[in-house]
Specification:
heterodimer, A: 377 residues, alpha+beta, 8-stranded mixed β-sheet, 3-stranded antiparallel β-sheet, 11 strands, globular, B: 335 residues, alpha/beta, D-Maltodextrin-Binding Protein, domain 2, Alpha-Beta Plaits, 3 domains, 5-stranded mixed β-sheet, 12 helices, 15 strands, 30% strand
């Protein structure tokens, strides 16, 4: 912790080679992904922010995207090699793209690393340790490494006995961009489980049974991609939720508390299980094991924070996830475990995987960055 | 040679006829010599020609400077923001409509955006599908859906009959302009309770650079806005002329002055009526300008202080010290 971002004064090529060298030391070998990819590759697993900001375009009726990251394309291209039996450590380097709020393309240089084929926590710890080393090699020492687990959050949410649709909404609420004030949360509960059920079901005052709705109202109507059954089931679900208002309130209160949790690794060892609930013990143990391994690999505990509610912008994560941010909040690295992704892309065998994207923009001095931008097309 | 100025007006669509009616009401009748031609003129505004274009092209013609002024819908301006275009008047008070999110009526379980968010998550996670949204307003639709936590959707660009897209099967829901809601209902769609993206109406736009530098344009714009402001203000008022008897004009004036409602904009105009006197009092004509909403109350008040025979006429124009809209435009342009 002996430099601040203002001391960072290296050029982009210097930062690139410093970061790449560190990843090489961790055994990652260079691999290429195409810049232009089918948009669906990213959209099917993109989280909210990515889906919003993916830079897409259409050529002859086909939708394409400029890669916003390496992981999706890395998995697809790794699977395409056909050689997925053995563990592999691949690293990627190049520009990644997104659409900014004005709808214009923006790009920044990124270095990525993916570790395929290792399901135990050593892989998680290894990728995190490689990230920490790479950032240090780029003279960024003041960053905070925040670690979480999407698996843990999902499990903690499940303990309230609510339906899976509602759990999905609650997960989205946790990741949503909104204030955690009482009025907002109360309004949210009211919208999810309106006290006045008839109103919620669009049935007005008519005493209509749900079966009657199914047979008489929906027959032969336009439903889009939904079926009669989808609608009736969800009506039933809403009716059920109306009777679960207390449970829903409790879950929302839990999420609010969950969102506030920020623990040092020592505090996490002592207390994380209390927050998550005893059913989560195997997951909590596995998670804490990653942090122990990380320490054993030389990562300094003092700048690690356990933030259970941390979310990353990709839906493909299944386990531990992490982010590194500079003191001013700028993101310099983010990644995590995504064990199901290969199967979703059609792999016959599951391919356990952990990956990271390191963003070099904030690591390059403003002066150098400006100079480079002028020369870079 | 003096270059003539050009104002682009909608040639067809929901606001085409109302635009001509609006300008007519403002005393700016548009002359269109040949219904097939795209050129016309407004005789009351010297040096200004009219170019008829589709609403979207009105925006583009003003943006590229072909036309310096234009009347189009706020919906169009918001969907395709142009740095070169400035909105001079954003509430011309016609062409009202709203951009809404609407879903099939048969989706009985969906009434709010939160319901729709759950459906989109269900599509995404269970069915591996995306909600298909038909719209000609992709930018606003996208921003609004994102704002409401809906991220997994595909915009279906459907030209023309957006409302028919779900029936045809090319979309699940629509984001479209609604005036009365009839078209939605006929297509078995319903707007969501909190699915109003924004309320639109007709607006006057101008080319920013031209307005900044072209004095003739500034002059014409001012004349145009004087008429528009005066008409809009006039429309809110009526003029009451009441015959009242009193000892003197002064006495009548002070009687009226005690009633704030009937003092009019500044105070009453009182003029003597030359006719048979009744005893010591004379007859006067009192003229005041009153807000339409206060009309009947004002009539009662005037009666209560002795008015008989009241006549009321609508006010066509009220010109204030200056056109407020033009003053605001000058501030906006730093003139």
């Amino acid at each position: 912790m002996n430099s601040s971002p203002s001391d960072i004064s290296r050029s982009l090529p210097e930062v690139i080679s410093a970061v790449e060298d560190q990843l090489d030391r961790f055994g990652f070998i260079p691999f290429e992904t195409q810049i232009i990819q089918p948009a669906s590759l990213f959209l099917t697993r993109a989280g909210d922010q990515i889906a919003d900001h993916l830079f897409t375009f259409t050529v002859h009726g086909e939708h394409y995207a400029l890669r916003p990251e390496f992981t999706s394309a890395a998995v697809a291209e790794y699977l395409a090699t056909g050689d997925t039996g053995r563990p592999a450590r691949l690293r990627f380097s190049g520009y990644v793209f997104e659409e900014n709020d004005e709808g214009k393309p923006s790009q920044q240089y990124s270095v990525g690393a993916e570790l395929f084929g290792v399901s135990d926590p050593t892989a998680d710890a290894d990728v995190m340790a490689a990230t920490v080393s790479a950032l240090r090699a780029a003279d960024a020492n003041d960053f905070v490494l925040q670690i979480s687990s999407v698996e843990l959050t999902r499990l903690a949410l499940a303990q309230f006995g609510l339906d899976t649709g509602l759990q999905r909404l609650l997960f989205a609420l946790l990741n949503g961009d909104h204030a955690w004030d009482t009025v907002y949360l109360q309004g949210w509960v009211d919208a999810i489980a309106p006290a006045d059920l008839g109103d919620a079901l669009s049935l007005g005052d008519a005493p209509v049974s749900l079966q009657a709705v199914s047979t008489h109202v929906l027959e032969g109507t336009m439903l889009g991609q939904r079926t009669q059954d989808d609608i009736v089931q969800r009506l039933l679900l809403k009716a059920k939720r109306a009777g679960q208002r207390d449970q829903i309130r409790q879950t929302v209160a839990f999420l609010k508390a969950w969102n506030d949790i920020s623990l040092t690794p020592e505090e996490a060892s002592a207390r994380l299980l209390d927050y998550a609930g005893s059913r989560s013990k195997p997951v909590v143990d596995r998670f804490l094991h990653i942090i122990d391994l990380l320490a054993a690999k030389g990562a300094d505990h003092r700048y690690i924070l356990i933030r259970p509610a941390l979310s990353r912008n990709w839906d493909y994560y299944t386990g531990a996830i992490f982010e590194c941010r500079l003191p001013d909040g700028r993101l310099v690295a983010g990644g995590g475990r995504y064990d199901d992704f290969a199967s979703q892309l059609g792999a016959r065998q599951p391919v356990p995987a952990v990956g990271v994207g390191i963003f070099l923009g904030p690591l390059v001095s403003m002066k150098n960055a400006a100079g480079l931008t002028e020369r870079t097309p | 040679m003096i270059k003539r100025l050009l104002m682009a007006l909608p040639s067809k669509g929901a606001i085409a006829e109302p635009t001509l009616a609006f300008l007519g009401e403002c005393g700016l009748r548009v002359e269109k010599p040949n219904p097939r031609q795209y050129i016309g003129a407004i005789p009351a505004l010297d040096g200004l020609d009219v170019l008829f274009q589709r609403v979207i092209d009105v925006l583009y013609k003003v943006a590229d400077g072909t036309a310096q002024l234009g009347i189009t819908g706020l919906d169009v301006v918001r969907e395709y923001p142009q740095d070169a275009v400035i909105v001079i008047h954003d509430h011309l008070n016609f062409g009202h409509c709203r951009l809404v999110v609407a879903v099939p009526e048969a989706w009985l379980d969906v009434r709010t955006m939160l319901d729709l968010m759950e459906i989109s998550l269900q599509f995404h996670e269970i069915k591996g599908r995306r909600l298909r949204v038909a719209t000609t307003y992709p930018n606003q639709a996208r921003a609004f859906l994102h704002q409401h936590g809906i991220h997994h959707f595909t915009l279906v660009n459907a030209e023309g009959a957006i409302e028919a897209a779900p029936t045809i099967g090319s979309a699940d829901i629509v984001v479209d302009l609604v005036q009365t809601g009839t078209t939605l209902r006929e297509n078995h769609l319903k707007p969501l309770d909190d699915g109003i993206i924004f309320e639109s109406q007709a607006c006057l736009i101008g080319n920013r650079a031209a307005l900044q530098s072209n004095e003739a344009l500034q002059h014409t714009t001012r004349a145009l806005l004087e008429r528009i402001d005066a008409t809009a203000l006039g429309r809110q008022f009526s003029q009451i002329t009441a015959n009242m008897s009193a000892g003197s004009a002064e006495e009548l004036g002070s009687r009226i002055a005690t009633e704030p409602l009937i003092r009019g904009l500044q105070g009453p105009t009182i003029a003597p009526i030359y006719g048979p006197r009744s005893g010591a009092s004379a007859w006067f004509t009192v003229t005041i300008i009153i807000r339409n909403g206060d009309l009947l109350t004002a009539v009662e008040r005037l009666r209560s202080i002795g008015a008989s025979q009241l006549s009321v006429v609508p006010v066509r124009y009220i010109f204030m010290e200056q056109s407020e809209t033009f003053a605001a435009l000058k501030r906006q342009l730093d003139l």
